[in-house]
Amino acid sequence: MNNKAEIDNAINKFVGKKGILIPLLQTIQNIESYLSLEVMRYVAEKTGTKLAHIYGVATFYTMFRLKPQGKHIIRVCQGTACHVSGAKTIMSEIMDQLKLSADQDTTNDGLFTVMPVACLGCCSLAPVIMVDDQTHGKLTPDSIKNILKKYK
Ligand code: FES
Q1: 81 in contact with ligand 1, CB cutoff 6 A
Q2: Are 31 and 10 spatial neighbours (Cβ–Cβ below 8 Å)?
Q3: Is 117 in the pocket of ligand 1 (CB under 6 A)?
Q4: Which end of the chain is more exposed for a tag (fewer CB within 10 A), N or C?
């Protein structure tokens, strides 16, 4: 937990109100970038909520992240247009370039996190990825190396 003072502020803002858990966890995730077990324990203690309940909410909703993320987020579109245009090959190329194993989504140096996502809304550019908020389209496996280079 790196931002205790900010987390305390968030808790103080929400505590005592009804239905606070989800907005509180979202606020804390925005501060810390993910929800560590340590932070969930702290919220449990400060709000009098059972840790099992907090953990249940944090694991149920896909918007919550339980692991630290890389400095750059690579969203790889898996929507229909991208799927038929080779999204799988693009994903494999990214995983190879970043030396990620199948069960790993973040590089060991903490530089990149790769996540499959639904349609990014620019299907005419398929296959598409987004690195942070920059869209890259009409990709080929060969184009991946140069894109990643810009962020290293
Ligand atoms: S399916 Fe990939 S952008 Fe729409």
Answers
A1: yes
A2: yes
A3: no
A4: C
